[in-house]
Write a structure and sequence with these properties.
- The complex is a heterodimer.
- Chain A is mostly helical.
- Helices cover about 75% and strands about 0% of the residues of chain A.
- Chain A starts with a helix and ends in a 6-residue tail after the last helix.
- Chain B is built from 14 helices and no strands.
- Chain B has helices at about 1-30, 35-40, 45-55, 60-75, 85-120, 125-140, 145-160, 185-190, 195-230, 235-240, 245-280, 290-295, 300-330, 330-335.
- The termini of chain B are close together.
- The chains are: A mainly alpha, B mainly alpha.
- The interface between A and B is large, with 48 and 57 residues.
Chain lengths: ~325, ~325
């Protein structure tokens, strides 16, 4: 009995380490080794070794490991840091006020004063591109977090409980998948109203099937695992098992899923604002900036649409590479 | 085989029902007054009341749903405020433009992606393989509207090779007599080769944009599937039996590797139909995508709803076609199913 409760303590310990990326690899071992209960003491013997290292060092250690493993991922990580700096300190880094128009300086091509040139109202494009990072990233992060919550929880429920829960979640996911996803997002934003919040909601809804399916599969494999039965035996309610045993174990995979879909979420949101949904001018946002520069592109003023488009492309590229890299580490079998 | 098709057809029904329920709900979850939305932003209180009666919005929800389904069965999708015509007629008139663009885009993408992916798998680790990896990773990161603009800038403005990126035909020409609605086919049917050239010139850039977008998933899938087939026992046996590597690769490996690629086409279509909207907006292509975008901007809801429904039904049908095709190519599915 004491071994079992010790086991439970260890599992929730894993749950607490979830935010620490360094535990992603280590986290797989309890689940994999769960059927070999005699191996358990061994793993817990190793624990103190890793927890000796201070958290900061372990993140650093992990970053070094990632870069050593795959230089492309290292490059993507550096790019991510740059994007993060733009998102956090955007208005401070930007050389000009992103909304200040100066019609005397309209349509200037890139120069020393305006690195990315100016647009039809004489606004500095570089400042606008930098400031827009925060909004674009926020839309993507919030929509991915929302779908992680909705899709993750309902997928885990479906996989763990099966039966009607499974059927309802499955039917919901199938119905969403019956639509071309971008078209559905358009319809949702049109119906809910033309706001940024609704872009976040629409992007979350179209990603729902993906998250629900992954979470369902992961929870389904673990529903009869040794540690779950042990938890049941010690008198935990089913709901408690889902929250304390299943969710922490499914989380690492879901985090990978998150980074894989971040790029898609950014693209989707930018696409919606490109066709005039959600973000309204004069707000700086990459999609709408490309739309504003679209007409000037064919008359040779390429810089108005080019720089926001390039920023969009680079950040999506960065997230895709990061997602692939993270996936390779957590789930090496799916490496391509 | 027939029961197979019948069984697959039966699976379409729940999808279509789901699609109809969702599009119905989309109109009912509108925050605020649905009737006011349908009547348009400039409608008077009396007009809104009239629309409410006309749409049956004063009735209960199940009654409204019944009415919605009956209207659909009659092909009635409501009326567009901007064009003043029925949405069904508008969409029917614009659908060929979208279909032509999407199909040509897909054909270009497939004819580049499949050989590229196959070659990358055969020569694993070679230059082609690296090129394939770069293209597939970059391809999924490119915002489709941005690619379109770049292509227009380079090939129209800089090089002057392409036609002006505006619409299906230059204003110098009038469209061919409608047979299929596809300008390329109709102009050939009318034996007007100059017109064919003009239509093709307009089509190249938007189709290429769509092709670049859909290239990545097809190439990636071809490569992965080809790799797994090349590593399989029957290929090794064929090699060991002394067949030339050309025969092994083309007739043994390639044909088998194509099966999963056909399945991926379903996902590719989902992307394509969405990307289509953006490409149509960039190139002022008069298809149903740009129709929906115009309607969205003027808060004209009936066309948007009709558009979403049409796209979803099309997508369900395309998936059905792909599955049936799959059964035709791969006899094992029939036996096992």
């Amino acid at each position: 009995m004491s071994v079992l409760s010790d086991d439970r303590g260890q599992m929730s310990d894993d749950g607490r380490q979830m935010s620490d990326v360094g535990s992603l690899v280590a986290n797989d071992s309890p689940a994999a080794g769960s059927s070999f209960s005699d191996l358990r003491p061994l793993t817990s013997d190793f624990r103190p070794l890793t927890s000796d290292i201070r958290p900061q060092t372990s993140v650093l250690h992990h970053a070094v490991y990632v870069i050593g493993e795959n230089p492309v991922t290292g490059f993507a990580f550096a790019l991510f840091l740059l994007i993060a700096v733009c998102a956090i300190f955007g208005p401070l880094v930007a050389p000009y006020d992103p909304l200040a128009s100066d019609t005397a300086a309209a349509y200037q091509s890139p120069s020393a004063a305006h690195w990315f040139g100016t647009d039809q109202l004489g606004r500095d494009i570089m400042s606008r591109v930098i400031t827009a990072t925060r909004l674009d990233l926020a839309i993507a992060v919030f929509s991915v977090a929302l779908v992680l919550l909705l899709g993750g929880v309902s997928g885990v429920m479906a996989g763990f409980f099966g039966g009607w829960t499974d059927r309802i979640v499955g039917r919901l996911a199938d119905t969403i998948m019956a639509f071309p996803l971008f078209v559905l997002a358009m319809g949702i934003v049109a119906a809910l109203g033309n706001t940024v919040t609704n872009i976040v909601i629409a992007t979350a809804i179209i990603n729902f099937p993906l998250y629900a399916r992954v979470a369902r599969a992961e929870a389904n494999v673990r529903r009869h695992a040794g540690f779950v039965q042990a938890a049941r035996l010690t008198g935990n309610s089913e709901m408690r098992i889902v929250l304390t045993q299943i969710l922490p174990n499914v989380m690492p995979i879901m985090v990978v899923q998150m980074s894989l879909t971040m790029g898609y979420a950014i693209l989707n949101a930018a696409g919606l604002s490109f066709i005039g949904l959600g973000v309204r001018p004069p707000t700086a946002e990459w999609g709408i900036m490309v739309a504003e520069g679209a007409a000037e592109m064919v008359s040779g003023k390429w810089w108005i649409a080019f720089f926001p488009g390039a920023a969009l492309m680079i950040s999506v590229f960065c997230f895709n590479l990061l997602g692939d890299g993270l996936r390779d580490i957590v789930d090496p079998q799916r490496r391509t | 085989m027939l029961t197979q098709i019948g069984r697959r057809l039966a699976t379409v029904i729940p999808s279509v029902i789901g699609v109809i329920i969702v599009t119905f709900l989309l109109t009912r979850v509108l925050p605020g007054d649905t009737a006011a939305y349908f009547a348009g932003p400039a409608a008077s209180a009396q007009a809104i009341e009239e629309v409410r009666k006309q749409l049956g919005l004063d009735k209960s929800l199940p009654e409204q749903f019944g009415r919605y389904v009956t209207d659909l069965a009659h092909g009635d999708l409501g009326k567009s405020l901007t064009t003043g015509q029925s949405v069904t007629a508008d969409i029917a008139a614009r659908l060929p433009a979208s279909a032509e663009l999407t199909l040509i885009g897909l054909v270009i993408a497939t004819s580049i992606a499949v050989p590229l992916g196959a070659l990358a798998a055969v020569r694993q680790g070679s230059l082609v393989d690296h090129a394939c990896r770069i293209i597939t990773t970059a391809g999924v990161s490119l915002p489709v509207f941005f690619t379109g603009l770049l292509l227009a800038y380079v090939f129209y403005y800089q090089l002057g090779w392409a036609a002006e990126p505006l619409g299906r035909l230059s204003f110098l020409y009038s469209p061919p007599p409608t047979v299929t609605g596809f300008y390329l086919i109709d102009s050939l049917a009318a034996r007007d080769f100059e017109l064919f050239q003009a239509a093709a010139a307009q089509l190249v850039l938007p189709a290429a944009t769509l092709a670049i977008f859909s290239l990545a998933p097809i190439a990636r899938m071809t490569r992965a599937s080809m790799l797994s087939v090349l590593a399989s026992d029957f290929v090794r046996t064929a090699r060991a039996s002394g067949l030339s590597s050309g025969t092994v690769i083309v007739t043994y490996a390639f044909r088998n590797a194509m099966l999963p690629v056909v399945t991926t086409l379903g996902m590719v279509f989902s992307f394509l139909l969405g990307a289509n909207v953006l490409v149509e907006k960039v190139f002022a292509w008069p298809g149903i995508g740009s129709y929906a975008v115009e309607a969205l901007i003027t808060s004209d809801f009936a066309p948007v709803q009709g558009f979403v429904l049409t796209m979803a039904v099309l997508y369900v049908l395309l998936n059905l076609a792909i599955d049936l095709l799959y059964g035709l190519i791969d006899p094992r599915i029939r036996v096992e199913g």
